[in-house]
Amino acid sequence: MFFFFYGELGELEYNAIVKSAFEKMMFEKLQSEGYCDINPLIGRPRTSKSEIENNLKRLDSPLAKVFAGKYATNTKELETIMLPVLKELEEKTSKNKCSFDEYNYFAIIYFIFQMYKSVDKKLDCVKELYRTWNEHEHEYEYDIRMSNGIVFDAAKVEVNFISSINQYVDFLGQIRKNDGKLFFRGHSKVSYDLKPSLFRKEEWLSNEKKMYLELMAKCPFEFERLKSHIEKLAEMQHYGLPTRLLDITQNPLIALFFACESQHSYHGEIIIFSQNLDSIKYFQSDTVAMLASLPLFTKSEQMQFYHSSFIKASNVNDFNDNVERLVHEVRMERPGFKSEIRAEDIRDAVVCIPAKKNRRIDNQEGAFVVCGLLDEIYGNKKYNTLSNLRLKLDNKKIAICIIDKKAELLNELESLGINKAKIYPEIDDVADYIKTHVNKTV
């Protein structure tokens, strides 16, 4: 990766870990989804050194030592402080054969930017980084803009900032379409990647089958009433096991609550999905049954399915021979399942409306995106497959909805009956809500 930092990073500019940090934190989401939030990286809001140090200590990261002292004020100090620690971090990662936790990348960039005292200087550096990256890295030229710390490709996305319910309702009125249905998802931070929990850590993805079967074995009574793999996955998702399901809602106010619920110092986000009515799946769908059966196979077997799916259409029989075990697994649940699977379906993601078998799904008007063997996870593509499901405006740009003034919005949502007790109907959550709102409840 090429980038230019005014020559002020010295040897750090050529360090592989530093380059990976900038790639991950500043460029990857811009490439895959068309936008990213650089505010946390430049200290908006400012994060204390002690907080970062303690977080790094919990990760047993050598970078904790960097935040135990003073910030660098020039290139020489930056090199002296960081180069030995980066070498130690590289050796530790190589020795343990483990991947970096993303927080290490955040800490590296945050420490570098603290060399500049003024926000204007930091923003100038950010602009120069994106300019040189854009010039040297790609055949496609990004139309990079920045607004309130949100960097975006104006050729692909349209950014909207929301700070009140009225503004949100007006925005929804402008984007409503007559020929489809909208679904929503709230993120408390814009930097949060749009992907299911299973794909957030390689160790989870590599052990999907093991986690699935272990939970079934250790908690059999919770699953004995559930007949299908998708029902079991939904139950696992409910109890916090990483799965290939992504929670979404049919209610835009529920999504707004999730976007505002935590991380009050950061911008939140509403992701809006648009689906034609005939594209929406239900629990009885053959496609859903096929995708929900993938956890019954190892990562190695899934990779075989993925690579087989690129067989040319003329050799479709070869593909179905390669996924015969998957077909067999689906037929154990659905005897009428056809013997053929469309190759592209196994790499797809579909919106599924579930049966309302628990109160949380009912109260949250929940639905799922069921993810298959996505190209960006099982292959090497950088584009986010889930972006294909996102709402596109008449100008073909993806609608981006950034949330500001979270505390005020939560108060407005409270007046509309959207609160923790509504979202989380389990008795412990309702009790916690009553306890913290004792002077406001009847």
Question: Which tags fit this structure?
Answer:
alpha+beta; 11 strands; 442 residues; four-stranded mixed beta sheet
How many domains would you count in the coordinates? 2
Average predicted confidence as pLDDT: 89
Count every helix, treating DSSP H or I runs of 4 or more residues as helices. Answer: 20
- Report the biggest beta sheet as strand number plus sense, adding barrel if it closes: 4 strands, mixed
Strand order of the largest sheet: 4-11-7-5
Description:
There is one protein chain. The chain has 442 residues and is an alpha+beta fold. The chain folds into two domains: 10-146, no CATH class; 157-428, no CATH class. Helices cover 45% and strands 13% of the residues. The chain contains 20 helices and eleven strands. The strands form three sheets. The protein has a four-stranded mixed β-sheet. Strands 6-10-9-8 form a four-stranded mixed β-sheet. Helix 1 packs across helix 4 and helix 11 (252-260) crosses helix 18 (406-415). The chain is globular.
